[in-house]
Amino acid sequence: MRTFGVEEELLLVDARGVASPVAPLVLADAPPVIDGPSVSAEFNQEMIETQTRPQLATRDLLLDIVGGRELADSLAQLHGARAIAVGMSPTRLRPHVTDDPRYAKMIERYGLTARGTLVCGYHVHVGIDSRDEGVGVIDRIRTWLPTLLALSANSPYFAGADTGHASYRFAAWHQWQSAGPTDVFGSVEAYDRFERLLVDTGVILDTGMLYLDARVSHKQPTVEIRVADVCLDARDAAVIAALVRALVDTAADEWRAGVEPAPVPSAALRLAEWQAALTGVAGSLPHPVTWLEVSAVEAVDALLAHTWAALEANGDLALVRKGLARIHATGGGAGRQRAAFGKRGRIRDVVALAVAATHEQSEDDDQVVA
């Protein structure tokens, strides 16, 4: 069984629900990491990132996700703030960049794209045996990533307005030059040439700015899948992580068996992602196999069927089926945010929901493992 772990980017908000630049104070109070989830700085001072440990069991990963949220929130509360899991700030904000030489260089070079973009994503790392396997995996999971984006969509509001998107984070994030899907690589050599070509253009600073939907990590023996919004509900985050691991398992098996990746061009994948970000699980999506328009439910069913054997082998099938039913019933993070706003038409109610929903699992151990 493969290990997996996640990184969650959380927004820090004050009592009014406004993004608050307290991350430096929060991190100054963070205890040394001995055995548990950790926190670190992000591009903006209104954000904090949590990291789980590598885990084998999804239940243990979920406990780490919840623990990371608890840690970030408890530290934030010392400075009059809360840590919430939303893809973008529902209220108006003025981002403050973290004091770091690399970030300063990005601000100088990339202008408003760097100064004005504050988004909170969700990154899943899954262990691989080799870089060859890693490239084989990302070649074969690419057609399934739009469906994962739809399941995670959790940023319908930005700066006080309904954007009309389920994941407006997707639109904001894709202002960056290298964000998005890739064509099939076919080999590690081709993948390495691609990375060198993009860096050598001088348009990006380094490989750290290769903001691909899926990439082979330079720091760990993992593939990193970066397409999702941070999830409002920690249980949904665990479901998506379990699906990602099952996709990696399935793709690795196909790679070893010599099954060719689907020859879908990245332009079509970008369209599918755009649609997934627009409607989430509440509309239609291109089918991940036929590429014909179907309901999001049908697209998710295809993802479940594709990963069924791996989910069953990992002991995750029941958890994922229950989680997908919950996401469909609520509309996921985007649906829950809009339901909260719909009651009284107040953005502050969206923030209040986010505070409660981000941390509701930590209040009930039975919910954590449900």
Computed Rg: 19 Å
Low-confidence stretches: 362-370
Largest sheet: 7 strands, antiparallel
Residue fraction in strands: 5-15%
CATH architecture: 2-Layer Sandwich
CATH topology (fold) name: Creatine Kinase, Chain A, domain 2
Structural class: alpha+beta
Mean pLDDT: 95
CATH level 1 class label = Alpha Beta
Distance between the termini: 22 Å
Number of separate helices: 14
Count of β-strands: 11
Order of helices and strands: EHEEHEHEHHEEHHEEHHEEHHHHH
The tally of structural domains comes to 1
Residue share in helices? 40-55%
Shape: globular
Describe this structure as you would to a colleague.
The protein is an alpha+beta fold. The chain has a single domain (4-364), classed as Creatine Kinase, Chain A, domain 2. The protein is built from 14 helices and eleven strands. The strands form three sheets. Strands 1, 2, 3, 4, 5, 8 and 9 form a seven-stranded antiparallel sheet that branches. The protein has a two-stranded antiparallel ribbon with strand order 6-7. Helix 11 runs parallel beside helix 12 and helix 12 crosses helix 13 (347-359). The protein is globular. The chain starts with a strand and ends with a helix.
